[in-house]
Specification:
The complex is a heterodimer of chains A (390) and B (308). With 390 residues, chain A is an all-alpha fold. In chain A, α5 crosses α6. The two termini of chain A are 36 Å apart. With 308 residues, chain B is mainly alpha-helical. Chain B has one domain. Chain B is 71% helix and 2% strand. Chain B contains 13 helices and 2 strands. The N and C termini of chain B lie far apart (68 Å). Classes of the chains: A mainly alpha (390), B mainly alpha (308). The interface between A and B is large, with 46 and 46 residues.
Chain lengths: 390, 308
């Protein structure tokens, strides 16, 4: 008889294996593409790795790219665990950024450093509102949330373009043909650069790179959301609805409310991605007017990262760094072997497909086990029923 | 003012702009009626758009160009069917994967094989003799002076309705979407029917892409569809899973699009952002009103498990 902890560890390992196989399969298919495009596969992937992690600065850029992806991915964990398919990360991120930048510019220097938490809260609430809207439409009007969030993404882009061309336009560039952008935020609102000074090192790590404290905020958020999902009654209810909607309803859980809440939290996390992008990196909101002009596609990449991370906020951390590395490395690959960076979008698509398809193997294994319930599982079952909110 | 906004040319352009919506939505409708939600339509459209554009650029042969779109659409439909029917993957998410694949792949190939956008000759206008001369209400100009794919798209609606409602195969599709267990018990292969409908959907999505790149815009660029495929999916809900309902939705959409183009062409001072936003807001509102969804196939997005 295997002990419970070993069993739990093996379980986690088994659940991670299909994920890894899925990503490897995606990279193998991408290799065929590279071969078909007459590129040397080893050189291409080598250039990609070198571009992503080859130098300290490259690693920092990878982490910088990973930050918004991680925020979105953490939110996606909440939504997907609640069985709400949130494709609206892009729009929620934009709404968060708009609210965050508006609050930051409005407060200016009057409140000192307090502007940072206020901007973060504004971004979270605005993104959450935009996500919660889709959750509300799903819960009470039976509107498919996939479709509504996709539509709301486009709506958010247009609202942003409108505000950047009018009310939020930097007075300094008004009337000229510059790229529409807001004024620069006050220096006090900027998130500081993240530099690791460890004893025994001649130079501090990530000195003079663009890596900022947004990364720390994202990791803290991952911890908070993990606790919320697996250690509180709120998270328990969200997951219960995701696991079995009908049973949850019979158990007295207000299903609609959980859906709205899951979408609010997911949207809030994406909203934070937007604010942090401004406070930590860009210091103003600007876009080229295209849908991904501001977000850089983080709203979509976050979905991929969350899936690759096993819909666990902690898993999302390495997954987001992986995708940040793909994006940064692809630019180097484009320079080195002339393969367009769009390859990354293709790989992302393949990873989603393979990860989702690999679920069948996990399910088959679980079903086989369900027929032979063993002692630890029954204990676990009792523990979860005890958790049921009254 | 109103007269110039509602000029006959606006209605004619609405009819033309409806083509990609009609192809993509009718194809998607077949898949959904059998219980498969294919959210990868936009990606398949992009692939169809690129390949037909590329073949047209190389050979100048429009029939070959269309064939290329059909082939690549069928292949991607086959892939989607394998993922969602055989592997039983969560359809909403796997569709996003197919979309991202098509988005990246079409751009990758375009940059590698073509580079700078060059326009192709594309499908010429074919004025239908006699009918295109009708002066009454400019009906001739509005309905009978378009490229070939426009006529094909509109002919597709009654054909789709006939197949769905009047043929044994249509009955099978509806049975599989409504009650797969019963269909299975009657000896209908749920898997085979779903494969066929999803491949039909892929082919029509490919043709929808071709209608954009070789008939409407006559050019390819990154993300040519800009989310048109997702609206096509929403139109199936909007049209309550019926060909003529889908047509009504497609026309509403293309009319709003045409109106928006006309308004900006006339230089009327409405913030263009709100005009661009309008179709998406309308879709959401339409989805709210379509929410009773009594016609919705009950097995939609549910993989079929034969048990045992």
């Amino acid at each position: 008889m295997v002990s419970t902890t070993t069993r739990a560890f093996l379980d986690r390992l088994f659940n991670a294996v299909p994920l890894l196989i899925a990503v490897i399969a995606a990279l193998v298919v991408a290799s065929f593409l590279l071969a078909a495009l007459n590129a040397d596969i080893a050189t291409a992937y080598g250039a990609m790795f070198q571009g992503a992690f080859g130098t300290v600065n490259a690693t920092a850029e990878t982490l910088v790219k990973a930050i918004p992806i991680l925020f979105v991915a953490i939110g996606i964990c909440v939504a997907f665990r609640g069985n709400v398919v949130n494709i609206g990360g892009e729009g929620q991120m934009i709404f968060g950024a708009l609210a965050g930048v508006a609050v930051t510019l409005w407060i200016g220097e009057s409140l000192g450093v307090l502007v940072v938490p206020l901007a973060l809260i504004a971004g979270f609430v605005a993104g959450g509102f935009f996500g919660g809207l889709a959750g509300y439409l799903k819960a009470f009007f039976n509107v498919n949330e996939i479709l509504s969030t996709i539509m709301l993404n486009q709506v958010a882009v247009q609202i942003m373009n409108y505000l950047l061309n009018g009310p939020l336009l930097d007075p300094a560039v008004a009337g000229s043909n510059n790229i529409p952008k807001t004024a620069r935020i006050a220096e006090i609102a900027e998130l500081p650069r993240l530099v690791f000074g460890l004893p025994g090192m001649s130079e501090p790590l990530f000195d003079r790179t663009r890596l900022h404290y947004g990364f720390v905020i994202a990791v803290v958020l991952a911890i908070v959301i993990y606790i919320l999902l697996w250690r509180t009654a709120i998270g328990y209810r969200i997951r219960a609805v995701g696991y079995n909607e009908r049973a949850s309803r019979y158990a007295g859980i207000k299903v609609g409310r959980q859906m709205v809440l899951a979408m609010f939290l997911a949207g809030g996390c994406a909203g934070l991605a937007g604010v942090v992008q401004i406070l930590g990196l860009q210091y103003r909101l600007q876009t080229d007017g295209s849908p991904a002009g501001f977000t850089g596609g983080a709203g979509f990449n976050g979905i991929v990262a969350a899936l690759f991370g096993g819909l666990n906020p902690f898993g999302a951390i390495p997954a987001s760094i992986f995708f940040g590395g793909l994006l940064v490395g692809a630019q180097n690959m484009q320079r080195a072997v002339g393969i367009p960076a769009a390859l990354v979008t293709t790989i992302n698509g393949l990873i989603v497909v393979f990860v989702v398809s690999s679920q069948i193997f996990t399910q088959v294994r679980n079903r086989r086990r369900a027929k032979l319930p063993s002692q630890p599982e029954r204990v676990e079952a009792r523990a979860t029923t005890a958790e049921t909110p009254s | 003012m109103i007269e110039s906004i509602l000029a006959p040319s606006v209605f004619a352009s609405a009819i033309r702009l409806a083509t990609p919506y009609v192809f993509a939505s009718v194809g998607e409708m077949f898949g959904q009626r059998s219980g498969v939600l294919n959210l990868g339509v936009d990606g398949i459209m992009l692939m169809g758009a690129f390949f037909s554009y590329y073949v047209a650029l190389l050979t100048g042969n429009l029939l070959l160009a269309l064939l290329a779109a059909v082939l690549v659409g069928a292949l991607m439909g086959l892939a989607m069917a394998f993922i969602s029917v055989t592997l039983k993957a969560e359809q909403g998410i796997s569709g996003i994967g197919v979309y991202l694949f098509g988005l990246g792949m079409s751009e990758l190939l375009f940059q590698k094989l073509v580079g700078t956008p060059r326009s192709v000759d594309g499908f010429p206008r074919v004025a239908i003799p006699i009918l295109s001369d009708i002066q009454f209400l400019s009906l001739g100009e509005i309905f009978f002076n378009h490229n070939l794919l426009v006529y094909v798209a509109f002919a597709l609606i009654p054909i789709a309705a006939f197949i769905l409602n009047r043929t044994p195969f249509g009955l099978m599709i509806r049975a599989v979407g409504q009650h797969p267990e019963a269909a299975d018990a009657m000896g209908v292969s749920v898997v085979r029917v779903r494969y066929i409908t999803v491949i039909i959907g892929g082919i029509l999505a490919g043709v929808a892409g071709a209608s954009l790149s070789t008939a409407l815009l006559k050019v390819f660029q990154q993300n040519l569809t800009s989310g048109l495929g997702f609206i096509a999916v929403a139109l199936v809900y909007f049209g309550r899973w019926r060909p003529f309902g889908v047509l009504a939705g497609a026309l509403l959409f293309s009319f709003v699009n045409a109106l928006q183009l006309q308004i900006s062409a006339l230089g009327i001072d409405v913030p263009s952002e709100f005009a661009v936003m309008a179709p998406y807001v309308i879709t959401i509102i339409a989805l709210v009103f379509a929410s009773k969804q009594t016609e919705k196939p009950t097995a939609l997005t549910k993989p079929f498990d034969r048990g045992g």
